[in-house]
Design brief:
homodimer, alpha+beta, Jelly Rolls, four-stranded antiparallel beta sheet, DNA-binding
Chain lengths: 189, 189
DNA sequence: CATATCTTTTGATATTGGTCAAAAAAACGG
DNA sequence: CCGTTTTTTTGACCAATATCAAAAGATATG
C-alpha cells in the first residue's frame, strides 16, 4: 500500500486523516496473467491501483480484439466510461502479467470524496493528468505515420515494447501487426 | 451568466454561496471571428466558458494547420495542457464565429477550489465528462474508416458540419479535405 | 456588380498501410 | 530436450487515402 500512498503524495500532499481513511478503503487484489479484471457488458464498480504488473484494455470488434490501452505500475485502472457512468463496460481489461492491485468500490470512493475535500482535489488532479495524457496520445495517433508512431513509442514509453507482445502494441498504435513488423525491420537496417 | 450557472447545475447542484462566488469570479469577454483566444507559445492563464459562438483548436505542423477540436455553446475552453501545467501552449485557439465568453483566471479558480469543496467536486465531475468524451473520440478516430467517421459526425454532432468550414472538419476527422469531399459526394448520390 | 479571394470539388497519380498466406522464430509444456 | 503452440516476420497483392493540380462554386469587397 506504500506505493499507492506515495503515488498520491506525488499528485498532491496527503494529510494524516485522509491517509488513514485511504488505508481503510483500499483492498489488495492479486490476479494472474490472462485473468480478466473487467469484462465487456459488466458494470464496473471498482477503481484499481496497479502496484505491480501490466495489463491491457481492449475492444471486441466483430471477430477481433483491438487493444487500445496498457496499464503499468502506478496507474489507476478501470473502464472509466463504465465506472463514471455506471453503465455496462464496452471494453475488457485483461492481465498481461501477474498483477498486484489495490481496489476501492465506487461507493466507498464517493464516501471519501464527500468527507474529504482533499480527496476530491486529489481525484480532480489525477483526472487532469489523465486528460492531458489522453489528449497527447490522441493528437499523436491521429496525425502521425506508422513509423513516427513507433519511434515516438520507443522514445516516450519504451517499457511498452519490452513487456507487451507486438500484436497488442500494433493495435495500440492503430496499425496491423504486419505493418509494425515492417516498420521495425526498416528501422533496424 | 445564467447559461454558465445552468450548465454547472446540470453537472452537479450548486449551493447559493458558491453561486455568488462564481458570479464574482467570472468576467465577460467578447471577441470577433478570426480572433485568437490562445496562441502557441503563450502560457494559458484563463479558463473560458463559451456562452455563444464557436471556435477551433489547431496545431501548426510545419507549414500547415491541423484542427483537432471545436468548441460550441456550453463548452469550457482553454488549452488544457497549458492551463493545467502552466507551460507554454502548443496549440492555437481561434474563433470561427463571433463569441461571447466568460473567463476565470487560474489563481481565482484555485481560490474557489480551495474554499469550496463543491467547486472542487464540480470541476472533478466536469473532467470526468471531458475524459469520457475524449476517450470515445479517440477510439472512434483510430479504428474507423473515413466514411464511417463522417457518418458518425453526421449522427452525433451534426452542428459541426453546419457551422464549420469543411477544411477544418476534414483535419478534425484526420483526413484530407479532398477525401472528405469525396466521402460526401459518394454519400449524396 | 465585377473582381478578387476563399472554399469546395474533381481528376490523375502516388503512397501508405491492409489483407491473406506461409515461413521463421520464439516460448511453452511434458 | 522435443514436439506443439504462439508470436513475429516476410512476400505478393490490393484498397484506401494522400498529394498535386486545376476547375468550379461561393463569399466578400471596393
Amino acid at each position: 500500500m506504500e506505493r499507492l500512498l506515495q503515488h498520491l503524495k506525488n499528485i498532491y500532499d496527503l494529510n494524516p486523516e485522509l491517509q488513514v481513511a485511504l488505508q481503510e478503503s483500499f483492498q489488495q487484489v492479486s490476479l494472474s496473467k490472462g485473468d480478466y479484471l473487467i469484462r465487456e457488458g459488466k458494470t464496473c464498480r471498482h477503481l484499481y491501483f496497479l502496484e505491480q504488473g501490466c495489463l491491457r484494455g481492449f475492444y471486441q470488434v466483430e471477430d477481433r480484439e483491438v487493444t487500445h490501452w496498457f496499464g503499468f505500475e502506478n496507474d489507476f485502472v478501470t473502464s472509466f466510461h463504465s465506472f463514471i457512468t455506471q453503465q455496462p463496460a464496452i471494453e475488457n481489461i485483461q492481465l498481461i502479467e501477474d498483477c498486484r492491485l489495490w481496489s476501492i468500490s465506487k461507493d466507498r470512493l464517493n464516501g471519501l470524496l464527500a468527507s474529504h475535500h482533499k480527496a476530491e482535489r486529489l481525484l480532480r488532479m489525477a483526472y487532469e493528468q489523465y486528460y492531458i495524457r489522453l489528449e497527447e496520445r490522441y493528437v499523436n495517433a491521429q496525425f502521425k505515420s506508422a513509423s513516427e508512431l513507433y519511434e515516438d513509442l520507443l522514445d516516450r514509453t519504451p517499457h511498452i515494447i519490452e513487456r507487451v507482445p507486438l500484436g497488442y502494441v500494433a493495435a495500440y498504435l492503430g496499425m496491423s501487426q504486419e505493418t509494425l513488423s515492417r516498420v521495425r525491420s526498416r528501422l533496424a537496417h
